[in-house]
Amino acid sequence: MENIRNRINGDIVIWIVVLVLSVFSILSVYSSSGSVSSSWSQVSKHLLIVIFSFGIIYLIHIIPYTYFSRLSVIAIILCIPLIILTLWIGKDINDAKRSIEVPGLGISIQTFDFVKLAIIMYVARILSKNQDNPSDFKKCLRPIIISTGIICLMIFRANFSTAALIFLTVYILLFIGRVKILYLLSTAGAIVLLLVILLQINKKVEILPRSSTWDTRWKSYITPDPEIDASEITSRSIFDDSHFAKMAISNGGFFGVLPGNSIQRNVLSNAPSDFIFAIIVEEYGIIGGVFIILCYMIIFLRAIRIANKTPRFFGALIVLGCALILVVQAIINIAYTVSLLPMTGLTLPFISLGGMSLWFSAISIGIILSVSRDINEQKVKENHASV
Q: Does residue 3 belong to any structural domain of this protein?
């Protein structure tokens, strides 16, 4: 045990929480996959993905986190051609182009997940380099606004939820980076005005190809539950999934129906991915659902603790950025599952079925642990020096 502890550095609590979430992921993916043959096939593949994700976390956490500041410049340059390529030849996932399939390998690269990570690293770099005057428009705000604005506008037409997640995370980082409140409010106002103008133009000329999908999701959010008989479904709709997710949560009650006994897994169209939280609550009850939420809160609180301890501003910002992108995504997924928000295509980090999306989440955790490892090593050096 001591040998393992020496090899695995960084915040041990985060390691444990991610391991717990991964165990829940494997059990829930198996349970929500439907038939026995389908479950074994899917869970075996998912198990390999989870194991590989821990390999990614380990490799990233031994890299000095300062390297990510330099890498962010290259990553941000790659974002625009990757987005263009995705929108041009990307693979459709839930009626939106979100990934590029690698010819001959049979795997898909979730380009928008790469973009999320790249923009967080880049914003952390710019803010840390201008920490004495973060409100300087030319040196600090302009490169952040231009890069974030271009990326969000390009993604917006195909994937509103990811664009909103990126904008919200960057906005919070700017606030943490001590940018003047007046500038933040002005930016928020300009974004709202731009959205209103785009929506008005779209009513006359369709410039937003997924506006009908957004409209359907909004209607499913504000419309009372339709009367649906699971045995008579001939076509799927967002109304169905929203309704069945709430039925799953209702079935679960306080203690759940126990693992493997989910009823709604047979009717939810994306049970292992988009609606896996509903399956967890159905099988493990409200207690299980609250436990999952607490896991994400622990990650965020530990990230704040790490950010407070790191001596470098870049380390603090990149830790908080990586934690925010994971936790806010989790909150959005849980919120639309319980009908607090309209449905989006955002998965539940470390739990939903996935490949590249899980691996990019692993990179985020690896970066957080890299900063934590640096703090621990500095402590050891100080202790040796004092002796």
A: no
Question: 313-337 and 111-129 are packed helices; what angle lies between their axes, rounded to 10 degrees?
Answer: 140
| Block residue for tokens 């959010």 | 221
Do the Cβ atoms of 173 and 324 come closer than 8 Å?
yes
Does this model's pTM top 0.70?
A: yes
Helix 12-32 × helix 276-309 angle, to 10°: 170
Place of tokens 């897994």: 265
What total of structural domains would you count in the chain? Answer: 1
CB 155 within 8 A of CB 115: yes
Within 8 A by CB and 6+ apart from 155, the residues are: 83, 112, 115, 162, 163, 166
Q: What is the pLDDT of residues 4-62, one digit of tens each?
A: 555 677 889 999 999 999 998 988 888 776 554 556 677 888 889 999 999 999 999 99
State how far the Cα of 203 lies from the Cα of 280, in Å rounded to an integer. Answer: 40
Distance of CA 126 to the CA centre of its chain: 22
Q: Would 32 be classed as within a structural domain?
A: yes
According to the model, what pLDDT value does residue 109 have? 73
Q: Is 341 part of any domain?
A: yes
Residue range(s) defining the domain that contains residue 161: 10-224+234-386
Please list the helix, strand and coil fractions of the chain in percent, rounded to the nearest 5, in that order: 70, 5, 25
DSSP string, 272-305: TTTTHHHHHHHHHHHHHHHHHHHHHHHHHHHHHH
For 108, left (φ over 0), alpha (ψ -120 to 50), or beta? beta
Compute the distance between CA of residue 17 and CA of residue 11 in angstroms, rounded to an integer: 10
The 107-109 sheet, strands edge to edge = 91-93, 96-102, 107-109
Report phi then psi at 96, rounded to 5.
Answer: -145, 145
Whether residue 2 lies inside any domain: the answer is no
Count the alpha carbons within 13 Å of 25 in the hemisphere toward its beta carbon: 29
